[in-house]
Amino acid sequence: MFNSTHTLTGLCLARAGLDRLAPHAVWTAVIAANLPDIDILVDLRGAPDYIAYHRGITHSIVGIPALALLLAAVMHAIAKGFRGHFIVALAVMFTHPALDYANTYGVRPLLPFDSRWIYGDALFVIDPFVDLVLAAGLAAGAYFRRRRLAAAISLAIMTGYVASRFELRNMARQRLESYAANTPGYVKSGVSPRMAPSQWMGVVETRDAVFCVELNSFGGVGREILRMAKGPATPAVAAARNTRTGAVFFDFSRFPVTRVHSIPDGYRVQFLDLRFYRSGFAFGAVIDLDPSLRVLRETMGFGLRVQQDGDL
Questions:
Q1: Cis, peptide link before residue 112, omega less than 30° from 0
Q2: Which of 92, 166, 80 is nearest to 127 (CA)?
Q3: In which element (H, E) is residue 221 found?
Q4: Maximum distance among all Cα pairs of the chain, rounded to whole angstroms
Q5: Taking all residues of the chain, what is their mean pLDDT, rounded to a whole number?
Q6: Which pTM does this prediction carry?
Q7: Which residue ranges make up each domain of the chain?
Q8: Distance between CA atoms of 65 and 62, rounded to whole angstroms?
Q9: DSSP states of 10-74 as a string?
Q10: How many other C-beta atoms are found inside a 10 Å radius of the C-beta of residue 202?
């Protein structure tokens, strides 16, 4: 989730009662709500390292208690009360991967024991309704001088909203699976949330292709948005997959497709993950190879342009 959501969640939890456990516990809660994202520092080393490590160990059942201990030690040195700061940090910090789990990107909570990704597929990465409810609770609490009650009410409303989004996701999944089961060569499917609660993008993988459809929790499957062949298995593709960028991409991707195009100095291989398809763009990687299949350039990122005519 976006960091505004994490911050507001931490603030509301503090105002709901956790701030009584230690001096300046509000600061502990705000920092704890965002601290797992310290792993974004690896972005300084490039996109492949960011994708490989983000939402990894710092979002796991091992990393969260370790970070909570570290934060509690720092806050104890500033304001005393190690035990209280640790309880606040631990409680708030566990909401971070829980919220991140709710969207399509996913988390790996069992690292370093198990590196598998899990996905909630229920909330868009930025959900204005959640932020609005939490912010309104904080504002109302300050205005009416009933901070604990207002914060608790806003957290309850947020929890109910998130639960309803998961139920709507289940409905969308069932409709998509019923539709996809009749598709020749069906392999798997998934849903990707839109901003509107009942609107989704359905992604279906078959033996030869991946396609995206409009989806509504109540109305079922709508029009097809995009269909792409999974792509060829050529020496150029094999060479691209063996790069650092290619390996990271396929460890992260859920619905990958491959494109190959000739360029003046060799080949361009593009890998796309269609779960992130939005208005002609998706997450992907591009690896340029010379005629001898030596790597010329590697790039990776969100917002790569998707074309359906075979060109990159």
A1: yes
A2: 166
A3: strand 220-229
A4: 71
A5: 95
A6: 0.93
A7: 3-120, 180-228, 231-305
A8: 6
A9: HHHHHHTTGGGSSTTHHHHHHHHHHGGGGGGGGGGG-HHHHHHHTTSGGGSTTHHHHHHHHHHHH
A10: 26
